[in-house]
Amino acid sequence: MIDYSALLYDSKPLEIFKKDKSEGELSHAYALFGDDPDAMEWLLREMVKVAVCKKGGCGECQACRALEGGVHPDVRFYDSRLDVRDVNELLEDCAKYSVEGGLKVYVIFQLDKTLPPAQNKLLKTVEEPPEGVLFLFGIIKPAAVAETLKSRCKKLYYTGVDGQRLEEALIKEFGEGENSTRAAAYAGGNISRALKFAADEEFAMEADNVVSLLGSMQKSGAVPGEVAKLKQDKEHVTRYLDVIEIVLDMMEKYKRKLTRGGGGIAHIAQGFSFAALGQCEYLVNDCRKRLESNCAPSAVLDTLLFGILEVKYKCR
Ligand SMILES: [Zn+2]
Hints:
The chain is α/β, with parallel strands linked by helices. It is 59% helix and 8% strand. The longest helix has 22 residues, at 234-255. The site of zinc ion (ZN) has 7 residues, from helix 4.
């Protein structure tokens, strides 16, 4: 497993949480925002250690060992979508006394996956939590979480890891070579994405193809030829859309000066305005819907490439 600790030990959200704990100022609920599920899961688990261990996460005491073994009686992790019944059950548990006499901790890794009725159920308790209860929420899509719920939490923002540090960790895990370097370049500080690239050579090659295509595609006459070169079954087209989405995101991050733009990203980003990138993103979502509703994959690719070309020139 990649060394999360080396990547994230000094991450800002964790530092803030540790400071709150050491000053006796822990809030009863924290919302961690970010776009990297793997990194966020690690951070939330670390926060739990900090919260329940008397030494702030020593790794050796009974509480730490119970956590490590997944058997701490006062800590619950939720990694899938919660429905109203799950939340009711969680709330019932909240009302019980702590077994170890410390905090009772509830971690929902992706609160945004929980639907509004279940969020509403949760809201009242987060507004007026019982003594000694701590909620930790991960949120990938902020718009999918009720404003009232977010406003009751102390907000923490995770913005990614340094590219150099990520590359070093990937090399340590996957070995020196083009794959690790490329994965770090395309990841833009996102660990989940870097792992996806590093573990899947085809995915990384596809990204190279997309970058070179977006850089070279000039005229609509070239589109049919480009479409013909691609595999046209649903699975490959879905993967292609995933890759395009990542490349668009990378271009945007580069343009906002958040990354260095490795892997040719800097070069192609020059050809796209912010408005064009926004519209391309919309186009990719539209193509996903078409694919889901059983449009022919080749037609979806046509729509996508013609669309990108059009948007690129219209929004110059
Ligand atoms: Zn400990």
